[in-house]
Amino acid sequence: MPAPGFRLLPGLLDAAAQSALLQAVLTACADAPAYRPVTPGGKAMSVTMTNFGPLGWVTDATGYRYQDRHPVNGQAWPPIPEALLDLWASNADADTPPDACLVNFYDAGARMGLHQDRDEADFALPVLSVSLGDTAVFRIGGTKRGDPTTSVRLASGDVCVLGGEARLAFHGVDRVIAGSSRLVPGGGRINLTLRRARPR
Ligand code: SIN
Ligand code: MN
Fold first, then answer.
1. pLDDT tens, position by position, 71-82
2. Which ligand has its closest atom nearest to the C-alpha of 167?
3. Under a CB-based contact definition with an 8 Å cutoff, are residues 91 and 127 in contact?
4. pLDDT in tens, 43-91
5. Ligand number with the minimum distance to the CA of 191
6. Closest to 190 measured CA to CA, from 171, 173, 167, 166
7. Whose CA is nearest to atom 8 of ligand 1?
8. Nearest CA among 95, 79, 91 for reference residue 126
9. d(Cα 26, Cα 29) in Å, to the nearest integer?
10. Rounded CA separation 6/122 (Å)
11. Ligand 2 being an ion, which residues bring their Cβ within 5 A of it?
12. N or C: which end of the chain has fewer CB within 10 A?
């Protein structure tokens, strides 16, 4: 069982909503191209990343942080697409908007190790995650690294919310099931995570 406060909303986005969101994401990425970040330990990540919104989450040799500029082109991040702000207001928090949307691109071999999201000011606000394209084999456990974990499949159009105790749950992506969706041209998965980085 995932930690209390984990909510999976399967198929919240129908096919038309997925296509429209994909188009909005790809259009915004023209101004904020995905790049391959490195961890503070110096390892290249297997996902490529970009961000939308006033702040973006970045990692490099100096550490993890939120910043208001794309680290490669020095430009402000593009705005968060309206459809994502609506999803946040309906499913995360109606009073405090998100100020950061991390965009992760997974190709067939990409994964993400177990980690906590803890670079934000206020853990009372949840993380809302939207999956597009190929299905992910997502893993979520408890608030301690050694806690038991559960595997959850995240398919295109699924939304999940990490709130309550699950806000600080360890989570990651074991693998992506190549060919499980035809949404993304050329295949792969796009995950969008909305967060409030600054204090409300
Ligand atoms: C993340 O934890 O940043 C991404 C999770 C996911 O890709 O589903
Ligand atoms: Mn995360």
1. 999 999 999 999
2. 2
3. no
4. 999 999 999 999 999 999 999 999 999 999 999 999 999 999 999 999 9
5. 1
6. 173
7. 191
8. 91
9. 5
10. 17
11. 117
12. N
